[in-house]
Amino acid sequence: MPAEQQPPARLVRFAPFKSRAEPPFWLDHSSRKLNELRLDESGSELAGHFGAGGSSEIRYDASSGGQSSSGGDEGGGARAARRNERVRAGGTVHSLNTVESFKRLDKNRFLNDAALSSILDCCRPSAGEEESDPNEALVRTACVTHCDLKLNRTVYWFAYPALSPRRGRAVAYSALGRAQSRLGDVWDGGRCRRLAGAFHSFRIEQESSGSGVVWCPPYFILLTDDDGGVTRCMSLSKSNYGSLSDEERTTAMFGFVDPNSSTAGEESNELQPVGWTLRNLVAYLSLGLGLGGSDRRFLSYRSSTALRRIELDNEELGGEESHGFEDLGRDDGGIGRSLLLSITIPLAVDYQWPATTDQASSSATTHEYKCVGWELNQNNKPGPRSVDLRPLVSPAHLSRQANDLNLRLMKWRALPSLDVGMLSRLKVLLLGAGTLGCNAARTLLGWGVRNMTFVDGGRVSYSNPVRQSLFTVDDCREGGKFKATAAAEALSSIAGQDVRAEGVVLMIPMPGHPYGDAEAKGVAADIKRLHSLVDEHDVVFLLTDTRESRWLPTVACLATDTPLINSALGLDGWLVMRHGPSSTLLEKHREDTGDDNGDGGGTKQHPERLGCYFCGDVVAPDNSTRDRTLDQQCTVTRPGLAPIAAGMA
């Protein structure tokens, strides 16, 4: 047998992690990609967590990712953030912009870039640098994704970086003694309970030390006396190990919280696979503590029941006797399934791979060390997985997200300053539900406007549907529906419940049109109603047929200082103009007066404003339909002009 080879039966088998990302995690990630990350592929914070004994499952959820899992006490949230019954795996998630870049990604290099530097810095810090915490640096996770925001589908691949010895130098059990023993078979119940007590006290000590730790430490040093009895657990670090006496170093065990509780091979006395976290622990002992080549004992800490969350306030009040061990009963505390391992630690040089040429990197040591750890897919082979988010959300949510997708994509590159939220809150009044009104409403819908009110007193006629896109022939039957209400109903059916559309049946009073005494009261009510509608909305679109119908709304907008967009059509021409304060003057007024609301402290008056539709008139508006033929009474417009004018408006 070649010297480089080891007997396969003595090699340590590691159980790889299996990711379990909860639906809120993917929904949150997709939302962050659309609204925050956009084109950024540099990576954002990621956190997973696992327990002691299970199926090597590491979970990702919205509450354990990002800043909420950092373990801080900001805002008094330490109690809510406490997860000391779980082990945290920190890392980064990189959301790539195209599926082609996902496929082209150099996966090995990505894995090395994700964690290699932090692992090596922990194992062998540079001179003068403070020692990093092995509990954070050695338990890492990484993920690369591509979010198809149109199809609501995400392709992803999780990884759990672990330093790997070069070929032929795998981690192996010791040739002397028993390689693996079940704790409950070699320790009595009393020793198991003392171990559980020592680990419980260790968790309390870690959290009450003031270090801000709110997760269960994945690694620890277990000290025993001459008879093999457990004395205490202490945090894994070079300084703690260096403070031990020679005798303590000889008898000490290195413990790790094992996420794997598989009993495969237990009955046939085969060696069981152990948790993936042992890989980096062994590398740390070789590179960091200089224990390469020696035989060391390890404790694979497993529990038949999940670890209990420790509420520190209760522990402080109850003292030593309140650690909760009375709840464990008279058995071994649930840790009898833990394993005692005897492992030969590889030499430090065993982790050095032959150097390779890397044209893309200026570092000569980039590939002297390598990481492994890509997750297996559903076919038990290395490869990505995918998740379809459509079944996870309601049709209303899908509709709302699809409606806003185009606008939010504009913010990525074309219009970074576009305020989508402001557009969705904007209340728009559309005066006129004809050709211009229908086209303007559809265009506003595309810009994310969700609150619209139509004002029109006419009914849908059979000549309307071919030019007015919100109506159908069914709206013309039985005298025709009112245009305002029919347009509002059509808008809601197009965009769903997310749109709040209302129709107000009202004839705009016009100068030059005579009204009798019997009509005066109704006209006065219409004027009051129109003024109220203008005042209740943020912007008004004036889209009526005649010149004189624009006069009263223009006056009302002037009185309430409401911005007004005026659009009018001719045979082969069109007009779009804006009334009210200019945006430049408005911003200057806000700066000068300190008025962030732009209302002048309760009034809507500004120093300067734009001219209106009637500023150039020398005579008052008159009845433009009097003594006119039909083609002169109607707005005869070249087809296709209305969408252009509405789009410009």
Mean pLDDT: 83
What is the general shape? Answer: elongated
Number of helices, counting only DSSP H or I runs of 4 residues or more? 20
Proportion of residues in β-strands: 15-25%
Could you list the spans in which at least 5 consecutive residues all have pLDDT below 50?
A: 65-80, 314-330, 359-366, 598-603
What is the distance, rounded to the nearest whole angstrom, between the alpha carbons of the first and last residues?
A: 83 Å
> What class, by secondary structure content?
alpha/beta
Percentage of residues in helical conformation: 25-40%
The number of E-state strands comes to: 23
Q: If you compute it from the alpha carbons, what radius of gyration comes out, rounded to the nearest whole angstrom?
A: 36 Å
Summed up:
With 649 residues, this protein is α/β, with parallel strands linked by helices. 31% of the residues lie in helices and 20% in strands.
If you had to describe this structure to a student in words, what would you say it looks like?
The protein has 649 residues and is of the alpha/beta class. The chain contains 20 helices and 23 strands. Strand 10 (219-224) and strand 11 (230-235) form a beta hairpin. Helix 4 packs across helix 10 and helix 14 crosses helix 20 (641-648).
